[in-house]
């Protein structure tokens, strides 16, 4: 709404946008002591600031990258993290030719991974290593204190109670898109057949 030039937001607009009632919006906001004017709505700048505070966006979240291949490079160069106060503070790789301590995001030897996590109190890691290395590296980083992993490795990691795993399987996502595209084609094809039969 702010990008469209609006200064105020109203509970009914917010409710419509996310599929809940205006009453529920006001109720949810009240849990976090977010208050607006009965007829004046919510000041968008104030509202965004309060929501950012609730989500912890005013605090910089430092994360690490394990595996500096093509996906790892793409993630390090992704600028969208900045607006979410997320910073990849270091990447780690086995290949000595990739090590670059002077890069804007330092690329460090994998041997330094455990100490870096402990010394910098890192809690989240992105895993972009080959499938044969994934489970071992996952165990190493969890044992060092990592609490959450975004896993790009093409295998299912063995879960453990001290770490949350979010799997990102690009091939599965593309297959899912093909499925839904074909489903839409089949639906529209059967609809057009029925319309022809009626006429």
TrEMBL record:
Main location: cytoplasm
Name of the protein: Redox-sensing transcriptional repressor Rex
Tagged with keyword NAD: yes
UniProt-listed SMART domains: CoA_binding
Source organism of the structure: Brachyspira hyodysenteriae (strain ATCC 49526 / WA1)
Function noted in UniProt: Modulates transcription in response to changes in cellular NADH/NAD(+) redox state.
UniProt entry keywords in alphabetical sequence: Cytoplasm, DNA-binding, NAD, Repressor, Transcription, Transcription regulation
Record-level GO cellular component terms: cytoplasm
